[in-house]
């Protein structure tokens, strides 16, 4: 029966029937296609499901391929579901995600140290939303605290193919800004440290 | 209201949780939380809501709006001020947070260590801004609703997790454990008074925050910062910081109280 | 935003995001399109999603329009289903299940009131996984909101004989806490009250 369906149609059907991105090996075993013809079909489908042409788009995220609604049509989908878009994450939550993404897998204590404030509440919220998960334990630290890592749901939410699909940390801060911070620190007295910490951007009252 | 509440159950001694009893019925609508105020307090004390995400100013405004015609009782107002002050103090403590418990609070960090931390934090801050943008750009993709549900038996619901979830969901407003917070030995009021007197001494000139907290331990410095924010929000002074990590300056308001 | 999307794209996205056939009036209100342009767009989409051209087909069923996989691709879809491992449930999902199990049948609003956070998205996930189902409506509340209940699949997944095969709420939660939850439900919105009223007075809560 399925012999009659074209490779692109098989892939289309399989992606349509999955809420999550489908990794290439799963796509191959479900469709019975060879890798070469699958890749060619996926290229065709990228044209058919491009943001310009369609209300459904083909994207790559979290190590797989996914069909999803075009963000241009998001409002119509939300009206259909009578569901508001989930509230965006807070500044603290973004900082915790950044710590875990760039420094992780890492512990809650390490995240709190980098941010300079207790981050347990923000971590808990992200675990609840499924954007972070506990993956193993840090056996070298006392009490073997849990190691946090970002999840596939995070990669999907960020539209990232994998963990490395982000600019490196070193490219994010420009040298002149770093130089200014160093200069200011050099001129400040050591006692100023509490004041500087208290200027945490998250501390908005 | 508190009379009625105190009759609610055998353990409903109003002294056991006076603030929640008197403030029962006050609900708040914030980005991070919506529901009864007492529930918010419980979540904060149990580290389920980050204290920095609770806009205290907004909270106070909600409380004020809730009782526009002076129907509030003195007891209720007192309880609210009491709990709001606790929140400010908690913010102060979180700022002075030392997760490893290794640092001597009286011993300032070495300049090199401070630089290392600030540069590390600055990078994370930029990364967080980038993530914010990425997540926003990708917010409108909705997945297919046409998947087949897994065959019965493939999906497992862990009964222990379910019981734990029931405990959590039905105990949201439980009086939380507060021992881990330890004693707070300094009040925002004291430090607000200190700031006011420093501004008076400065004779209308700006005061540098660094000068203000020189010699203070980290907890006091952090509470001083929250006090400065409180004074700024009530209009007694203006806070000025021209760039991230730049010096913070306190300017007396034109109309000093 | 959605002004930029073409009519066909809007319809495509809405049908993609709805598990059930969407009646024309619902389609119009979600997309904000006029009837004429919708019908024209649906004609176009019938060509785009024809059994000859695509692995996804547009059909009319049960008084509405639906996107579905092309029967020619059924084998591939079945193989995917066999391979797919369901993602574990989140903490939020467990809490929603616990609320419905112990309060149910109850409304979304009552679940959100107990949890203190909007639970619509978690409820939708559980409906999609077949662990919750809508069983009737609460006709005494404004808008007659749907009543949620746990399903047989839920009982199977939890290895439970029946609804009573779980520890009673009293053994899990302090009596004072339960009294407070009850008070909160009673003083919440009318829709949330439905959850309480739908419950026997002598029931668990």
Q: Key terms for this structure?
A:
heterotrimer; A: 205 residues; mainly alpha; Arc Repressor Mutant, subunit A; 2 domains; two-stranded antiparallel sheet; two-stranded antiparallel ribbon; 4 strands; B: 257 residues; 5 strands; 49% helix; disordered N terminus
Structure description:
By secondary structure, chain A is mainly α. Chain A has two domains: about 5-80, Winged helix-like DNA-binding domain superfamily/Winged helix DNA-binding domain (Arc Repressor Mutant, subunit A, Orthogonal Bundle), CATH 1.10.10; about 90-195, Orthogonal Bundle (Arc Repressor Mutant, subunit A). Chain A has ten helices and four strands, in the order αααββααααββααα. Chain A has helices at about 5-15, 25-30, 35-50, 75-80, 90-105, 110-115, 120-130, 150-155, 175-185, 195-200, and strands spanning about 55-60, 65-70, 130-135, 145-150. In chain A, strands 1-2 form a two-stranded antiparallel sheet. Chain A has a two-stranded antiparallel sheet with strand order 3-4. Chain A is elongated, with a radius of gyration of 22 Å. The N and C termini of chain A lie far apart (about 65 Å). In chain A, about 50% of the residues are buried. Chain B is mainly alpha-helical and about 260 residues long. In chain B, about 50% of the residues lie in helices and about 5% in strands. Chain B is built from ten helices and five strands, in the order ααββααααααβααββ. In chain B, the strands form two sheets. Chain B has a three-stranded antiparallel beta sheet. In chain B, α5 crosses α10 and α8 (about 190-200) packs across α10 (about 220-235). Chain B is extended and about 75 Å long. The chains are: A mainly alpha (about 200), B mainly alpha (about 260). The interface between A and B is large, with 84 and 82 residues.
